[in-house]
Write a structure and sequence with these properties.
984 residues, elongated, mainly alpha
Amino acid sequence: MFRVGSKAACMACRNLVSTNMGVRFRVPLQKLHPLSRAIHHRYSGNTNPQRTPHRTAARYFTSMSRLPMRPPKPPPGSGGYGHQQQRNFWVARLAARLLKLRYILFGTAVGGGYTAKKTYEEWKDMLPDFSEYNWVIPDFVWELSEQIDLDKLAKALPEMEEIAKLLPDLDKIGENFTFLKSLLSSGVSLGSEVKGASGLHLLLETSGDPPLKATDSSTAATQDGSDKQYKKSSDKEKIDQLQEELLRTQLKYQRMLERLEKENKELRKVVLQKDDKGIHQRKVKKSLIDLYSEVLDILSDYDANYNTQDHLPRVVVVGDQSAGKTSVLEMIAQARIFPRGSGEMMTRSPVKVTLSEGPHHVALFKDSGREFDLTKEEDLAALRHEIELRMRKSVKEGQTVSCETISLSVKGPGIQRMVLVDLPGVISTVTTGMASDTKETIFSISKAYMQNPNAIILCIQDGSVDAERSIVTDLVSQMDPHGKRTIFVLTKVDLAEKNLASPSRIQQIVEGKLFPMKALGYFAVVTGKGSSAESIESIKDYEEDFFQNSRLLRDGMLKAHQVTTKNLSLAVSDCFWKMVRESVEQQADVFKASRFNLETEWKNNYPRLRELDRNELFEKAKNEILDEVISLSQVTPQHWESILQKKLWERVSTHVIENIYLPAAQTMDSGTFNTTVDIKLKQWTDKQLPHKALEVAWETLQEEFARFMAEYKGKDQDDIFDKLKEAVKDESIKRHKWNERAMDSLRVIQHNALEDRSITDKPQWDAAIQFMEETLQSRLKDTESVIRDMVGPGWRQRWLNWMNRTPEQHIRNETKNELERLLKLHDEHTAYLANDEVTTVRKNLEGRGVEVDPVLIKDTWHQLYRRHFLQKALSHCNLCKRGFYYYQRHFVDSELECNDVVLFWRIQRMLVITANTLRQQLTNTEVRRLEKNVKEVLDDFGEDSEKKTHLITGRRVQLAEDLKKVREIQEKLEAFIEALHKEK
């Protein structure tokens, strides 16, 4: 380079100007450099003082250098200006070429650097945001990253030649666009060909591919020179070539993006797995979508009927049965996770799927810790089976679908973050095997989810069937008439293109011109060939190949951003997060106000009670019930035996008196009495007595258990537990089974006790006599009560209480008087009347004008003789009080032969021994088994939320439940909002 202001510089500029003007470029003077223009005027004889070359050049160079400006002097020995110009002509040309080469190199360097920088910035924008994974990388890595030499990093970028290979042939595309725009500007009518070209032009404008800009520039550069008209056949060929070229270019860029995206996934996976080596061992924070999903799970548990202020966004997937809802969800989740059936209803309850990004492709349920590896076919089969089991379990008996939500989380590399709810398919007819209300139930479930003003409705329409057969579009139109939150998806487009005679009908559908419903966006997808064995990757390839070769896209009926499930998932995810950001804080304020109202109501109504929810109240009641069962084991043996003995005698006394004692005593013979007693006692012991004893023991245990639970109420018992305790008591008793092996040993013990006839001392004798007297007196009172009821009130009651006898009672009274006279005449009469005696009594009554039936005579005689016999037995019992001496020495005295006392002693001893045996079995075995049953019942009730809801009720419980849930929801929402702000 020459020094500024030197003579050589002026000469070089003069030579350049002369060369440019005279030979090559013919540049106008106005466009010359100021220095060159000044030199030209100087040597061309210009005398204008305002255009003095030295002044002009000095004014220009002063801004660049402070060196003085001098006019150039001709070299010594020069022969004048003309000779100097001819001699330096080749020097000027050489200098011009050198300067031109310098500027070309300089421009190439600047342009190449700018292009490299732009490419670097674009690649850097395509990388994921690793800010949330900063904790994975150690601190020293960040310190080293600050010292990285950027020049070395720039050298690591691909060479410009490799990048240029990826770019399309811009010149060829420019020529095609020049031709297309010339056709459009000249107004040539080409029919359907021009229509397709215009549609394709619109498609490329909306897709935003980089080559279009270069094409526009090349078109603008060559548009002025292309105004030639082509024939119709050549125009069509040009348009077809243009379309094919553009599709190939788009496919080329798409594959390059897919490759970069795959590398991006691998990089994310490596970063997320970086913690395996123990770097920064800290707990992984929950992702943003997981926090949001937890809020939705709490709301679902809080109120499954959507009666609360739950307006948080969800993506609700609705569609006709077998329309392809499940396939679309699987493509978005990138795994075949749902059970499938050929035309059969498989989705029987709502399934909430939380999609999030993670290093491994796994799925798990919210109430289970098992992870299903979605890359393994056996785990996929197990997951589908588990979902099917949960659906069938949630469906109540007699129903076909359920409103109970199944929560599932799916994580994997590159999965879009969102929450989708898959609903049962809408049906038009109830088939055999379905509940009669299945159609209405599905409609109500779908409406409940779609009524949420912030729910995004993903409306799935089967493209392979007639659009007029769709049911779901009308339902969606009712819920979202303006289409502000609806995304329409047309499935099975491959079958639609094949079967439909008019493909333009598909265009009408995706443009929203066929259905009356409105939507934010319209998408067309292909979800495989209908085989359940297809993998996600094969379905993606099939979808890509179909749209690449489809005339729908080639003819401009569909736009590039409207096809493939990948574009659909991106659009749904963007819409979902936009809705979340717009509504989540408003929903948090709603729950905050609800919490304030609930807390105020609690302080006003229950100021001295803690806010215990249903689960906490159940645990408190559980402890109280277990304490009561433990206190049952503290009952004294004396109390057990007295209760058992009393209850056992009450249960068997009637049998002993009516079937053993009276038949034997009425024989009036000592030997016959003992034989009859032994036989009847043996039969009774073998068949009835052990069963009766165990029944008495079991009833006694129940009564004592109930008594302890009732007594506990008098303390600090909360009456809110009454229903629960009663249910626990009933269920425990129902489950308790007495040990049947105890019956055999009890039978032997009772038989041995009844076989013993030896009364060893006088107290035992007296006790037996007392027991006999009490028993006989009790029976005598019962008999006299029966006789009074038969004959009616006596004369005193009739006079004092103004009571009268009925005709039947009058007959009974006359019959009683006649039979009493017979007993007075025959004091030792047997228990039964002879036939002639019955006839005599009846005739005597007829003589007094009383008509009586023989059966009535015998019934009256039975009660009268019973009373007569018991009175005689009591008087004999008084005589036996001094008969122990005769019994002990085996003296035979007709008056003091007290075999009946020995019988009652044997019965009494059997009762004592049986009560003692039962008490031991109760305290040693049955009480513990009952306590175990109570624990099992409480555990079962604790796992049954419906049972707890039914048994622990009241406004206090419901208020505490609402308070807990609303607080939990608010806390989760606040944590989610904080994380959302950090992500921004």
